[in-house]
Amino acid sequence: MGNKIHGVYLVTDRPLCLYHSLVEVVQLAAIGGVSLVQLREKETDSRQFLELAKHLKKILTPFQIPLLINDRLDICLAAGADGVHLGQSDLPWMDARMILGRDAIIGLSLETKEDYHSLIKTDPKPNLDYIAVSPVFDTETKTNTKPAWGLDGLQWLRAQTKLPIVAIGGIKESNAKEVVEAGADSIAVVSAICSAKDPKLATEILSAKFTS
Known about the structure:
thiamine-phosphate diphosphorylase activity, 8-stranded parallel beta barrel, ThiamineP_synth_sf, TMP_synthase, TIM Barrel
């Protein structure tokens, strides 16, 4: 697992792209220094999803920014994407690893501390590239989530694991710094970049939270 998970992680959401198309948002975020992009498409059919994935892969390749697909291994394989992000109800991560191979980036969302305990029980050293704390704060982009982890929960998880941690949920410019200080290797954002008038600037400001 040579992939370094660090910095700003963009999770796409077309309805939240208020000022630019999704493709433009991704392009501007890439110029702004985003580290990872996850394509999340809940509303579209498989063919459109695949076309979009191929298009984003073409945009991101010159920047050497990995493209992850939410949930769909078939789209990941067909688009030549770099990996998948899996939730608790998606295909088990071990099966995803078997299908996608050792070089793929595979991340897993943890919604509760119990999710972490059962992960470690299954495999004390899981072959994952990152685990995602979801949600850190309450968020409007995902309404069916469990109670927020909060900064305390994030610090707890940091003390448990050496795996890279991606924090997602309610993260914006005003609280990003404290999330990084609580132990997140990467901050995943949706509306903070998708809904920004200037996605490039929004990405640069969030990226600076890792260095300042």
